[in-house]
Write a structure and sequence with these properties.
The complex is a heterodimer of chains A (250) and B (262).
Chain A: E1 4-15, E2 18-29, E3 33-37, H1 44-51, E4 59-64, E5 67-68, H2 73-78, E6 80-83, H3 95-105, H4 111-122, H5 137-148, E7 155-159, H6 167-184, E8 187-191, H7 195-201, E9 204-209, E10 212-217, H8 219-226, H9 231-249
Parallel strand pairs in A: 3-8, 3-9, 6-7, 7-8
Antiparallel strand pairs in A: 1-2, 1-4, 4-5, 9-10
Helix pairs in contact in A: 3-4, 4-5, 8-9
Chain B: H1 3-19, H2 21-47, H3 55-85, H4 89-93, H5 99-129, H6 140-165, H7 171-180, H8 195-202, H9 205-219, H10 224-255, H11 257-261
The chains are: A alpha/beta (250), B mainly alpha (262).
Chain lengths: 250, 262
């Protein structure tokens, strides 16, 4: 078994009386793409935010690259990056200005070379002199991914990166992600509500609901275990079972 | 603290300024407009002998110094809001950027703004009213340092409040400074205020700067008392507000408000 890049132990997050994340534990192996799945409000975003030190956990332990997030934030986040369509880059800056700003932020040594290399990889060289506000949704998705690779991250957290894309662009982004994993060995933690996409991309999925890990395995294992045709049906099964349990408890 | 991360944020704001007319106007518009309105009034008062001597100097000095204070406060608050409005705040804090580095970048944005405002207002005052701000000589340095630090302190305070209570509190970024103005003795001495207002003025660093400015105009010297009081009160508020800001940021992370802010 490859060494774990992320180790989460008994992680809890409470907002007042509400428990968003309820004692979850999991490991993420190096070089794997892992899907973090669950219905809205399951605790996925809160978990990712805790992994990025944007939210302080109530209790529990997060170790990334073998380091404790509480003591080694700078060292961890220097080797990590994040991409989400819900977080944008400044619209009034040109594409190259945005990339240059973030490259400096991450202390990239040869900024111009890195931007050129990634712009070629994502096919956005012609967009570099344009204002970010003028980009299409698909172009923005590629720009976000470009930004997220500026520091050559070992770990990439992707929050629904294809959610606002048409099927063609979403397919291209998925292929790019697979290429990144293949060429750079980047470990990815991926959230999405598109189960076909998860089956295509992920080596493993972790289902969470009501803040707890409900199941964990490869997409094929889970489909077989629940006796359904695909991961979409497994998702519906787990989400509705969780809903029933919650209504019985209340 | 790493300077490359501080300079990255600085660069991000400079990129924005060179392209954004409204933001450039924000730096230059208010100082110019205030200088015109108050400058014309002071010229009129002097011509009509409605007030004593040096009224133009007192008003013009007051206007320029007030602009330095208010622009340095807004440099912090507006720079912060830029990232909130652009939904970019989360991008910054998922990077290794520390809160200290973020604060350092707001400091340097403030320094740049205060220099720009100072240059524009000084040139305009010479051209329109033959008023030379450099009549204050070396006293100008401690005045500007005090005004800048108090502006930065006020900016950090309003930013901390917006961080904690969200963009519904963003009006503070524009309006909070005007709560300070009546008690800062910008255009009139502390002695002209009613008793209760004088007590407020005595705990505000800016009031000592403006009192000191008038002292220099009247006597040609600056008393140690005003300068010391300005530095002491400034130091106290800066320490208090830094503690407040770090505490607010920690609370925001506990409550998970950074994402909601974006």
């Amino acid at each position: 078994m490859a060494k774990p890049i992320i180790e989460v132990k008994n992680l809890i997050k409470k907002f007042g009386d509400f428990t968003a994340v309820d004692g979850i534990s999991f490991d993420i192996e190096e070089g794997k793409i892992t899907g973090l799945l669950g219905p809205n409000g399951a605790g996925k975003t809160t978990t990712i935010q805790m992994l990025l030190d944007i939210i302080t956990p109530t209790s529990g332990e997060i170790r990334i690259f073998g380091m404790d997030m509480r003591h080694s934030r700078e060292a961890i986040l220097s080797q990590t990056n994040f991409s989400s369509p819900y977080v944008t880059l400044p619209q009034n800056l040109k594409v190259w200005e945005n990339l240059k700003t973030f490259a400096r932020l991450y202390g990239v040594p040869d900024i111009n070379l890195k931007i050129k290399e990634l712009a070629e990889f994502f096919g956005i060289e012609n967009l570099l002199p344009k204002l970010t506000a003028t980009l299409s949704t698909g172009q923005l998705a590629r720009l976000n991914l470009t930004k997220s690779l500026l520091n050559d991250p070992k770990l990439l957290l992707l929050d629904e990166p294809t959610s606002s894309l048409d099927p063609d662009i979403a397919d291209r982004v998925r292929k790019l992600l697979l290429q990144i994993r293949k060429e750079r060995g980047v470990t990815m933690l991926y959230t999405s509500h598109n189960m076909a996409e998860i089956e295509e991309l992920c080596d493993r999925v972790i289902f969470i609901n009501h803040g707890k890990v409900v199941d964990d395995g490869t997409p094929a294992e889970l489909v077989k275990k629940y006796g359904h045709e695909d991961l979409n049906d497994v998702f519906l099964h787990i989400a509705r079972e969780g809903e029933m349990k919650a209504s019985q408890n209340s | 603290m790493r300077f490359h991360r501080v300079s990255a944020l600085l660069l991000r704001h400079l990129y924005l300024y060179k392209r954004s007319f409204p933001r450039l106007m924000d730096i230059f518009y208010w100082p110019v407009m205030e200088l015109l309105v108050w400058g014309f009034l002071s010229v009129y008062l002097e011509k009509t002998q409605a007030a004593g001597v040096n009224i133009a100097t007192i008003l013009l000095g007051g206007i320029i110094f007030w602009d330095l204070l208010s622009r340095s406060q807004q440099a912090v608050s507006i720079s912060f809001l830029e990232d909130v409005w652009e939904r970019n705040f989360l991008n910054l804090f998922v990077s290794p950027l520390s809160i200290t580095e973020f604060l350092a970048s707001t400091f340097f944005v403030g320094v740049i703004r205060i220099i720009l405002v100072g240059i524009v207002a000084s040139i305009l005052a010479v051209l329109l009213y033959q008023f030379n701000i450099f009549i204050f000589g070396l006293y100008l340095v401690p005045f500007v340092i005090n005004l800048f630090f108090f502006g930065w302190t006020l900016g950090l305070f309003t930013t901390g409040i917006i961080l904690r209570y969200g963009t519904s509190a963003q009006i503070l970024a524009f309006g909070f400074i005007f709560l300070i103005q009546p008690f800062s003795a910008v255009f009139y001495p502390i002695s002209a205020m009613p008793g209760w207002a004088q007590w407020i003025a005595y705990i505000i660093p800016s009031s000592y700067v403006f009192e000191g400015m008038r002292e220099v105009i009247a006597t040609g010297t600056l008393g140690v008392a005003n300068l010391s009081a300005a530095f002491l009160t400034n130091f106290f508020y800066l320490a208090l507000v830094l503690w407040f800001f770090y505490r607010m940021f920690a609370r925001v992370k506990v409550k998970g408000l950074l994402l909601k802010l974006d």
